[in-house]
Amino acid sequence: MSDYQLSTLAVRAGQVRTHEGEHAEPIFATSSYVFRSAAEAAARFNETEKGNIYSRFTNPTVRCFEERLAAMEGGESCVGTASGMAAILATFMALLKSGDHILCSDSVFGSTIGLINRYLVKFGVEVTYVKPDDNNAWRNAMQDNTKLLFLETPSNPLAVIADIRAIADIAHANDAYLIVDNCFCTPALQKPFEFGADLIIHSATKFLDGQGRCVGGAVVGSKQLVGTDIFNYIRSAGPSMSPFNAWVFLKGLETLELRMRAHSAAALDLARWMERQPGITQVYYAGLESHPQHALAARQQSGFGGIIAFEVERAREGAWAFIDATRLLSITANLGDTKSTITHPASTTHARITPAERERAGISEGLLRISVGLEDLGDLKTDIERGLAAVRG
Known about the structure:
By secondary structure, the chain is an alpha/beta fold.
């Protein structure tokens, strides 16, 4: 379906109707599949014949989600996983070996830093962290054994924008791969492959679902890297996406472009308003003209997304007072929901990394993150005013 636009791919790509003639995609709730003969079973397992084998790694509902997301991102292949972190782990496990080096943005999700620092390094993988917006730092940190460059753009939660094209060129000049976590923008707002990325990571739990219902992840890329290398790890290790969750994500993809435009419009309005409010000392949102990478974000993205981070007065005391005074915002660390959420990163999403790592990533005690949902903007502003009143005491 390469000739179709994103909105069409979001509702049509990947579906293969069964003999029942269903209009909606079915959920194939089965662990295994029946073969017509012993020879067919052998051919499937030997991979001389395509077809379903076992739902740990072949399931029609999951495959429909994978093919749809691959089409929307412009990739050749996709594998669904049990979570976004499982997608990152599968990528690392499939492509790295002892002695390899990762060059990673220091502004990635706290769990990603924990995965690398606590587990990958135990198996002889080296890591260097750099500022995502410092191209010279990426270039200077390259080593002969650098295999992967990993970044999120916009970053979580400070919306730091990395120059995908420049960093991809650095990676490729050194025979390394660039991996971009596209969770905050999704293919509705950003297409990393167009700027040279080799792999795209998703936490499907977030905006791809869009309503906070299921946990899942995905990796998109080439037939070799994803369709063979990462798929074989999924087949062996089993961090699989469930058919039901895949079906939920398929329904989420159908409205993704509409939701991302609405999230972006609401967040931009809210961020501009928040810049003027007493008690807020800094707003981090790439759609603001005051953002240092606003022009770069405008070139790479067709919208600025639904995540706003901001600093309030009185550090943790002020941040917690703000959260506890709200009535509408959901106090939860998840994001990408139709319901607006709020969290204090230093004590939740980034609590398990060291204070030094938090400081390096800009995660202060007064920092809050709002994932802007689809509620009425006036109601959201009223709730934020309640929080600010508590900050001011």
